[in-house]
Description:
The complex is a heterodimer.
Chain A: E1 2-11, E2 14-24, E3 28-32, H1 39-47, E4 54-59, E5 62-63, H2 72-75, E6 77-79, H3 92-101, H4 109-123, H5 138-150, E7 156-160, H6 168-185, E8 188-192, H7 196-202, E9 205-210, E10 213-219, H8 220-225, H9 227-233
Parallel strand pairs in A: 3-8, 3-9, 6-7, 7-8
Antiparallel strand pairs in A: 1-2, 1-4, 4-5, 9-10
Helix pairs in contact in A: 3-4, 3-5, 4-5
Chain B: H1 25-48, H2 51-77, H3 84-101, H4 106-125, H5 133-154, H6 183-206, H7 208-218, H8 220-225, H9 230-256, H10 268-279, H11 285-303, H12 309-324, H13 329-353
Helix pairs in contact in B: 1-6, 2-6, 2-9, 2-10, 2-11, 3-4, 3-5, 3-9, 4-9, 6-7, 6-9, 7-9, 10-11, 10-12
The structure holds adenosine-5'-triphosphate (ATP) and magnesium ion.
Amino acid sequence: MMEIEGLTVRFGGVVPLDGVTVRFEAGTCGLIGPNGAGKTTFFNVLSGFVAPVAGSVKAFGEDLLALAHFRRARWGLRRTFQTEQAIEELSVVDNVAMMLEHVPGSGNAAARREAAIEAIEFVGIDVDPDTKVGTLPARDRRLVEVARAVVGKPRLVLLDEPAAGLPDEETEHLGQVIRRIPEATGAQVILVEHDMTLVGACCETTAVLDFGKLIASGPTDEVLRDEQVIKAYLGTEEPA
Amino acid sequence: MGAVGTTPAPAAPSKLRSGGRRLQPNEIRGLIAIAILLVVSLAILPAILSVYWVTVLTAVAYISVTALGLNLLMGRVGLVSLGQIAVLAMGAWIFSKLSFSTSLPYPIVLVLTGLITMILGTLVGLPALRLSGLYLALITLMLAGAITIALRTMQFPNGGPGFLGNDPNSSAAVRRPAIAMSDPAFFRYTVIVCLVMFLIALWHVRGKPGHAWAAIRQSEPAALAAGVNITLYKLWAFALASFMTGVAGGLMASDVGRLYAISFPTDKSIVLLAVVLMGGIYSLWGAVIAGAFYSLLPALLDDWGLPADLLTILFGVGIIQVLLTAPGGLAQQFPRDMRNLGRLIMRLARRGSSPPDDGRAAA
Lengths: 240, 363
Ligand SMILES: Nc1ncnc2c1ncn2[C@@H]1O[C@H](COP(=O)(O)OP(=O)(O)OP(=O)(O)O)[C@@H](O)[C@H]1O
Ligand SMILES: [Mg+2]
């Protein structure tokens, strides 16, 4: 469970997050909002890439912001990026296994490989695990990134538009994978997406940002019917 | 919550489960190439070449290790250093010092040299924590310049008195290992030490540091998200490169015997950068090719009676070729060319044995 209070981020005159107070309950939660609403910035705060000027983030009762950014992976924070960032130079299995190399207690190389292969199977990448990621199509790279996010014992998984640019049937497969993450790993998932069908299918609750402010939060179907939310999306995209 | 309806992704193909990783075909080819290179350089070359060429090849070997340091920094971590020849000179200085003022066994002096150079060389890499690209290149170049100037005034230890240990009238040569006093024997010794350095590099690249470096090179946010301590791993890369370059400097000191500061002009670092790029920075083989460009090519040109300036032009053209058409350098280009050549020969052979208009009818 995540409790965010009064979170504010400033880039000069831009205020991408403006006093955001929100709770994310266990399971998969959606985070939506029009372009530039501050969703990625919110993830960047959780990752430690961006320092907020005010506010606090409690994850399972712990103060996440107190940890150095590179130690958050050890804590159990995982994420994917809006522009997919699987490591091209490395093989599929090394990409996934390396997530455990900086987490003490992940066992030896063989154990890490075993865990990586389990994650690769979990997301359903059907290629030789020793293939270089650089040679894979976009869909598989996305899945490699998701496998990186679920391998081992994640506690909080942040997915930043994992379905962007994927055709419908791939998105459906991805949705099945995302839905199984909390059950399979025990992690809390926050999903940022513009594809409302995917959000509706994966998330029980959803929060909505607009210009850095929280404008709605609650059960996904109610939120997607909310008038203010529809208004915020008008001109950009209609929620499904 | 969770699994609403549909079943999970396709079940695991059994090939995934079959134990650890197997050797890939290109790895097997690599092993064969290493074996051939070792047999040729340990058994054949010292027996058939004159002392002059053996000495040239000794230089190729230790310059390969110097190039390997830069190859790792650039190709694996994405850090440009123009200070590597200065680090080599530092290694040579430290080795000379230890060689004259201690009676420690040769391999220990070599390792100590590597370790001390590692500490100093990592200091040269400190700016890398804040800078990258051109700025880092410039800073390292300036530090290299400073080291060169310091060496000019200090000169190299040659058994003289005091800490600096330089006596202008001394003609004492730096030590060589007792088992490798002659030039051919020292060449073999050098090749084996260099092989060890390449294996250390390979072990790094294949393991945890290599994975962390690959992540850093592609995207620092992605590396951080994977829990990589970027500061630590960048410094580690500089430490490793400096260690190797220090060892190479030690071998160089023993090879040359009497060292002079003028043998390490700062601009040689730029030549090193050029040959490392031409050799290819994404493969450790690139460092071997770079060593040959740096040390063998000038000797060959000299032998053929061609002017040494030709090298500058050759390297210039080589760099343009790398930048424009073959970012992987010769280490990637060469196997590809060989494959194409093989295919061409196969096609010619096939054409020779079948009627020429075969298959055109089908179209
Ligand atoms: N490093 C930065 N410096 C300055 N402004 C930034 C920076 N990063 C983001 N912004 C601005 O902050 C605002 C929020 O951006 P953010 O990327 O969080 O939006 P988003 O909700 O993820 O949008 P999208 O759906 O397009 O990904 C935007 O106005 C953006 O231009
Ligand atoms: Mg975004």
